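Supplementary Note 2. Why include the ligand at all?

Several targets in our set were suspected to adopt different conformations when bound, so apo predictions alone were not considered sufficient. For every target with a known small-molecule partner we therefore ran a joint prediction. The input for D-glutamic acid is given below.
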Amino acid sequence: MIGIFDSGIGGLSVFKELVRLLPDERYVYFSDSRNCPYGPKAAPFIKERSSQITDFLIGQGAEIIVVACNTATAAAIKHLRENYRMPFVGMEPAIKPAILRSESGVVGVLATAGTLKGALYLNTLATFKGDVKVIERIGEGLVEAVERADFDSPEVEGLLRSYIEPMLDEGADHIVLGCTHYPFLLDTIKKIVDGRAKIVNPAPAVARQADRLYAKKAHHDDTPFCTFYSSAAFTEPVKELARSLTASPCEFYDNTL
Ligand code: DGL
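The joint prediction is reproduced in token form.
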């Protein structure tokens, strides 16, 4: 079974890619909705929560864990890899390919505060930046909007415009989505970018990495295709979104962990 977790439903953007690649596997997803957003939280808290969630997912049968959250990856993946003997796949803002492919020499990155100050991001930036200009922006309010299943209201479009337009004005030809919640805003982002830059979503690459690391199993039992757990409660629109990503029956459990 493949375990996935995020501070909320953002990890569903990675789940979607996993299901595409590994449709015959079984999944267990944990949404730490009670503690969402992780972005402004201190790294030790996220590290501790990530360990608790990992224990929980292992208890549910997970044999590999996809940390489908850039912020949790930044705060905790090193700790998880040192403390558990199972494969972990993490998120990393895709600034390396964006920097290497940029022709204008300007790249925009939209991510949470925790991701942008994490060693993972800063090291990648230091290694590949060269003389490319990297414009960083914290996507304030976006995670909360996605959690409300608000992907395209005027308010959300306004927020996105205020983050992305200045990047485009400065000549960015790549906009990196450095938070797993943001791909749910893709249609609105595309409308704003209007072909002026390439939008980079690392989720497909992360799913391919999980595919490489996971020893596939044949499932002939009654295990549901995916069991979704939340530390708060799943709203109806979120359940609908989750169901829309799978062809098979799923189960939902609230107030876990
Ligand atoms: N989806 C997460 C990420 O990729 C977490 C966002 C948050 O909770 O602030 O960073």
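The mean pLDDT is 95. The chain has two domains: 2-90+204-253, 95-201. Comparable summaries for the other entries are listed in the accompanying table.
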